Amino acid sequence: MSGRTDAVTSPRLRVLESSLTKKQAHFEERLAQHFADVRSANGQPLNDKRNGIATLNRWERQNRALQSLQDGIDLTTRAIERERSAIVRTAEVALPDAIKRGVADGVLLQWRKHPNTFFVSDVDKARIVLLPDGSVAHRYVSSIKDIAQHKKFAKVYNALRAAMDAEERG
Question: Which domain of life is it from (predicted)?
Fold first, then answer.
């Protein structure tokens, strides 16, 4: 991965990495317990022991538990890779300076699934879309029921559009 993407993180990525660390520690602990249990057999043939079948069944349960933990670790690792690729894909989208400033200030939130779509913070449903020709449009504005949210969205959208028009002219 490039150095640029290592510096960029997300709350989801931090949670996933924390979860992976916990799962790996738990796996190592359970593995050590399993080896200690196997070692306690002292290398004696299990058919000589009083509870040989019960011991084998216990070891089988421990193996299944370890496999389940390993599957969870693999799942979390794949989720981390997906999140990192989403961060890279989002960072690779070329954005106008006005939108970059809005995202940096926290006024606009970039949607990872569709990196050309932006939400205005504290506004429900409505979104600003960066069109292929470099202009912006809005969607789902009629879904805003709260007047204060509608005013905030209009203020941000109009300011963004004016800033982008000024960038084009100047």
Answer: Bacteria
Question: What residue spans define the domains of the chain?
Answer: 3-91, 97-169
| Residue 102 · residue 156 · CB < 8 Å | yes
Q: Which long-range CB contacts under 8 A does 21-27 form with residues at least 24 apart?
A: 23/69, 23/72, 23/73, 23/76, 24/73, 26/69, 27/66, 27/69, 27/70, 27/73
Query: Residue 76 and residue 15: Cα distance in Å, rounded?
Result: 10
Element (H, E) at 136: strand 136-139
Q: Compute mean pLDDT per 10 residues along the chain, 170 residues long, and list them.
A: 52 94 97 91 70 86 96 97 88 84 87 87 89 88 88 91 83
